[in-house]
Amino acid sequence: MSEPASISAGIAGRYATAIFEISKDSAQLDALSSDVDTLGAALTESDDLRELIASPVYSRAQQEAAIEGVAKAMSLTPAMTHGLGLMAQKRRLFALPALLGALREKIAEAKGEMTADVTAATALTSEQQSQLSKTLAEKTGKTVKLNVAVDESLIGGMIVKLGSRMVDTSIRSKLASLQNSMKEVG
Fold first, then answer.
1. Alpha carbons 55 and 51: distance in angstroms, whole number
2. What pLDDT score does 77 carry?
3. What is the pTM of this model?
4. What does the alpha-carbon distance between residue 82 and residue 91 come to, in Å, rounded to a whole number?
5. Do the Cβ atoms of 33 and 61 come closer than 8 Å?
6. What SS3 state is found at 72?
7. 2 has a pLDDT exceeding 80
8. Coil, helix or strand for 24?
9. Crossing angle of helices 3-25/29-45, nearest 10°?
10. What is the CATH topology of the domain spanning 3-109?
11. How far is residue 84's CA from residue 18's CA, in Å, rounded to a whole number?
């Protein structure tokens, strides 16, 4: 991890812990989950919001006023609104994407869920996704949500990343392994 990413993750982790604990104590985890999804979608869609959180041109007061307006317009929970306001006061809004990631992890852990990143050679049908999710849930003992992406360069098969584990059953990796084996022989 690069140094700026490490710093951002550290800052985000502290804010995420505080926002999560406040939301958990006030039984608002579902609302917090909704906040995270809403803010994540806004960050993806809005160039202005991404500029606001990253640009040093805006003063603390401007960032704070803008983020309070965003929070009010999105009807965010008080814990999230206050956390964002505090981040703006301390000029730490640049860590917002990392904050959302950290909150997603904490919410999933509290709900007994895990997220698996699946890269497949072709699009998976809903039945295949359901079966894969069910199989992973049996192995982990947790509910597994899938983030599915398609990469045709895999030729066939898929790569599944679940926590610190990775299973690569792609044809591309098998061909690369065969190629390495052949180099060792010759």
1. 5
2. 96
3. 0.73
4. 14
5. no
6. helix
7. no
8. helix
9. 140
10. Peroxidase; domain 1 (1.10.520)
11. 11
CB atoms within 10 A of CB 8: 19
Q: How many residues does the chain have?
A: 186
Residue type, 40: G
Please state, rounded to an integer, the average pLDDT across all residues of the chain: 93
Cα–Cα distance for residue pair 74/42, rounded to 1 Å = 10
Give start and end residues of each alpha helix (H) in the chain.
3-25, 29-45, 47-54, 60-74, 78-89, 96-110, 126-140, 171-185
Cα–Cα nearest to 129, from 117, 141, 111: 117
Q: How far, in Å, CA of 17 to CA of 33, rounded?
A: 14
Token reading at 7: 């710093």
DSSP state of 121: S
Other C-beta atoms closer than 10 Å to the C-beta of 183 total: 8
- Average pLDDT on 176-183 reads 90
DSSP symbol at 153:
G
Token pair of 63, please? 């960032």
Of the candidates 183, 182, 1, 16, which has an alpha carbon nearest to the alpha carbon of residue 95? 16
CA separation for the pair 121, 148 (Å, rounded): 11
d(CA 133, CA 153): 23
Give the pair of three-digit tokens for residue 148.
């599915």
Quick: pLDDT tens for 44-57: 999 999 999 999 99
Domain locations in the chain? 3-109, 113-185
